[in-house]
């Protein structure tokens, strides 16, 4: 058995907490004439540098984030009794109380001129998130300032005022703003307030809020165990979902096991979906996978960390560290979401990370590490593990499944969907498949009754679905083969097929750790063998490339490697997809604007006296996926290599390796800024256009660009060019001169 005892021989643990970036975000702010210490809401990354950034129209710092800081440093002080943590908690709490009005409610944002944003929807007084979080932060700190009587009195008065106001702002269900998510934050504050004051009325209020939260827990279906935030349909979102954590804390002060049982139900039934798919952003009428954010991960970790000591079940400690691995490499990109200087990165997307690092994401990452560090030291090393397979929840986008010869259209409402009024069969082969019983769900919108049959091998289930919109349960299917087929036949009208979701009855997770594989199943971990997929060659495409000489320029014919259609004409503006790697349709460049600069698809750049060859129709650029460009029969020595390119979803850099015919190599930087921003790497703006087409084909007044990178070469002929794996970077043309 892979137990805590076995793990005790391993010396490393949770990633080290680094407060440097949080200190970078810390700054002095003027609040209506008084200097307070707050934290910048955003920090945008430009190259290797972070810049303090405001939230346009909202402000530069806010109660919601500074209250998070107060919670973080209060937790640290309670654990380690370090005076630095106490001082940082105090100044953050002082900021929070400065935004509290005389009625007990809180404003949220401060403008850069020092005035309070009193009218913005995310800032005005409204018994909202920032008020609940401010009250929680204050109540959570009441016990740690006994030796600072003046500040303790100030906290007492603030907590009393906020408690009075917010408790009177609850609706008939004892919710703030009619939702259990923000109410769970308030509940955490009420519990801390009760623990400090001993007021039975506070305890009674906490139980009323807790009981209402219990009533929102979903008992059946895909969202079984989660807490419903929807009104017209079931909805769960990852951010702010502290219901499980607050119910555990309520159990601790009441001893009533119904609150603990609810948190256990959440962890056992719903969290395996998130271990499978990652901390998805939202599940409503379909699963919205991205962005995946630290603010989603931290409440899950906090719930599981709190669940472990009260249940003494090791599985919750294991789950906590596996979820916590999100910040190291346990995510679908296998990239760290926590930077070397303590940055909590903004978000994870399908093929890239947003490495901006503002207060919310940084504090959420740090608080996650603080809480993971309270687990037994023997289990902490598992944060460096990576889930690689198993019997997991599987999600398939219908438009990417095998549709055979059936006719359909694509509908671009919210999520891309298959639209048809005829019968259709869709199939999906499943890699690394684990047989077993799965719940089958289908998301979409059906105008009429629809017959659905799902089959795998010799086993099948079928169901007649009534007109519906959202995620629909088809049945339980015993899957023995690594393929699922769905046949759908509407009676009349259109059906829109969005996603196919398979949820295993008995999930299994295989993860690699310390060069071995382990199986996490039924709450236990055992060492196992695991056959990994055969790795494809590092360089996914190789092409023998010729070229065309024009004067002193050698224009490489790299069209064979083109894998993206990012330039479209007005008549085809609803097609094309430059920037949406995960989808079928995206934004794109206007070809009619590019053509103005071309003669027979060739562009002459006078400043460098160099020519470039462009392709307009069909695939017109390559997304960098480790291609190898072998130059065929080129004996001419070139002084420079020119690359025309651009990035999407941010600014990206990498390394290109050049192999020369004499066997020598040269590694050079490749860096392209975002196609719709200004260049930050010093590259030349080669072409700039007055507009672009969005994913729906609508003209947007955004100025997309193509950049030029100039690379000095050695005095010997080039033999090969090895491109890096950067799926957010595109190349349109390469020329040597």
Would you spell out the secondary-structure blueprint of this structure?
Blueprint: H1 4-7, H2 20-25, E1 26-31, E2 34-39, E3 42-46, E4 49-53, E5 61-62, H3 63-80, H4 83-98, E6 109-110, H5 129-140, H6 149-168, H7 180-197, H8 200-215, E7 236-237, H9 243-254, H10 257-277, E8 282-283, E9 287-288, H11 294-311, H12 314-324, E10 347-348, E11 353-354, H13 359-372, E12 386-391, E13 394-397, E14 409-411, E15 417-420, E16 424-429, E17 436-446, E18 450-456, E19 459-465, E20 468-479, E21 483-490, E22 495-504, E23 508-513, E24 516-521, E25 524-528, E26 542-545, E27 547-550, E28 553-556, E29 567-568, E30 589-590, H14 591-595, E31 602-605, E32 610-613, E33 622-625, E34 628-631, E35 640-647, E36 652-660, E37 665-672, E38 684-688, E39 692-693, E40 699-700, E41 705-712, E42 718-722, E43 725-736
Parallel strand pairs: 26-34, 29-30
Antiparallel strand pairs: 1-2, 3-4, 5-6, 7-8, 8-9, 10-11, 12-23, 13-22, 14-15, 15-22, 16-21, 17-20, 17-22, 18-19, 18-21, 23-24, 24-25, 27-28, 28-43, 31-32, 33-43, 34-42, 35-41, 35-43, 36-37, 36-42, 38-41, 39-40
């Amino acid at each position: 058995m892979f137990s805590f005892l076995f793990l005790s021989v391993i010396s490393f643990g949770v990633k080290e907490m680094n407060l440097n970036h949080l200190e970078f975000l810390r700054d002095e702010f003027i609040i209506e004439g008084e200097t307070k210490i707050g934290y910048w809401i955003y920090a945008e990354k430009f190259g290797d540098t972070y810049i303090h950034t405001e939230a346009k129209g909202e402000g530069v710092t806010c109660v919601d984030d500074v209250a998070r800081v107060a919670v973080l440093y209060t937790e640290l002080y309670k654990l380690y009794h370090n005076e630095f943590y106490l001082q940082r908690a105090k100044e953050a709490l002082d900021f929070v109380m400065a935004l509290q009005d005389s009625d007990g409610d809180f404003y949220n944002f401060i403008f850069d001129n020092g005035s309070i944003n009193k009218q913005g929807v995310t800032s005005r007084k409204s018994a909202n998130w920032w008020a609940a979080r401010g009250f929680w932060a204050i109540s959570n700190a009441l016990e740690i300032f006994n030796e600072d009587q003046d500040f303790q009195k100030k906290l007492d008065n603030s907590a009393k005022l906020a408690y009075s106001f917010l408790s009177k702002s609850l609706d008939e269900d004892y919710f703030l703003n009619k939702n259990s998510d923000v109410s769970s934050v308030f509940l955490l504050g009420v519990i801390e307030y009760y623990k400090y004051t001993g007021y039975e009325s506070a305890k009674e209020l906490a139980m009323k809020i807790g009981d209402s939260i219990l009533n929102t827990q979903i008992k059946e279906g895909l969202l079984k165990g989660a807490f419903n935030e929807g009104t017209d349909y079931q909805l769960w979102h990852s951010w702010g979902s502290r219901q499980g954590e607050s119910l555990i804390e309520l159990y601790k002060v009441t001893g009533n096991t119904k609150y603990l049982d609810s948190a256990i139900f959440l962890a056992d039934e719903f969290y395996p979906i998130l271990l499978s798919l990652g901390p998805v952003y939202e599940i409503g009428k379909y699963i919205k996978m991205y962005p995946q954010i630290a603010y989603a991960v931290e409440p899950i970790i906090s719930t599981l960390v709190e669940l472990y000591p009260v249940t003494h079940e090791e599985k919750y400690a294991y789950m906590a560290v596996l979820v916590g691995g999100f910040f190291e490499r346990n995510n679908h990109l296998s990239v760290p979401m926590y930077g070397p200087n303590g940055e909590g990165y903004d978000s994870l997307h399908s093929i890239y990370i947003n490495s901006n690092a503002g207060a919310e994401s940084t504090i959420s990452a740090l608080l996650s590490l603080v809480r993971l560090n309270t687990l037994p030291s023997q289990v902490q090393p598992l944060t460096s593990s990576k889930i690689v397979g198993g019997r997991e929840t599987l999600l398939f986008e219908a438009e990417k499944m095998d549709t055979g010869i059936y006719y359909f259209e694509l509908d671009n409402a919210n999520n891309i969907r298959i639209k048809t009024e005829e019968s259709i069969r869709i199939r999906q082969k499943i890699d690394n498949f684990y047989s077993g019983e799965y719940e089958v769900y289908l998301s979409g919108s059906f105008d009429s009754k629809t017959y659905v049959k799902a089959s795998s091998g010799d086993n099948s289930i079928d169901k007649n679905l009534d007109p519906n919109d959202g995620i629909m349960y088809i049945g339980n299917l015993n899957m023995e083969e690594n393929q699922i087929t769905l046949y759908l036949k509407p009676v009349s009208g259109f059906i829109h097929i969005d996603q196919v979701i398979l949820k295993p009855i008995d999930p299994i997770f295989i993860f690699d750790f310390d060069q071995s594989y382990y199986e996490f199943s039924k709450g236990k971990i055992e060492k196992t063998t695991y056959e990994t997929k055969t790795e494809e060659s590092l360089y996914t495409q190789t092409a023998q490339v010729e070229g065309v000489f024009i004067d002193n320029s050698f224009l490489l014919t790299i069209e064979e490697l083109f894998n993206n259609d990012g330039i479209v004409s007005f008549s085809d503006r609803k097609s094309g997809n430059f920037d949406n790697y995960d989808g079928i349709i995206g934004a794109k460049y206007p070809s009619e604007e590019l053509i103005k600069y071309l003669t027979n698809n060739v562009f002459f750049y006078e400043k460098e006296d160099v020519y470039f060859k462009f392709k307009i129709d069909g695939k017109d650029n390559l997304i960098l996926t480790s291609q190898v460009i072998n130059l065929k029969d080129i004996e001419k020595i070139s002084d420079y290599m020119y690359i025309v390119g651009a990035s999407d979803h941010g600014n990206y850099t990498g390394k290109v390796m050049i192999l020369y015919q004499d066997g020598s190599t040269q590694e050079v930087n490749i860096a392209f800024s975002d196609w719709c921003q200004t260049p930050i790497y010093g590259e030349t703006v080669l072409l700039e256009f007055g507009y672009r087409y969005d994913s729906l084909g609508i003209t947007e007044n955004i100025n997309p660009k193509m950049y030029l990178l100039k690379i000095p070469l050695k005095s010997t002929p080039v033999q090969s060019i090895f491109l890096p794996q950067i799926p957010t970077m595109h190349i349109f043309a390469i020329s040597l001169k």
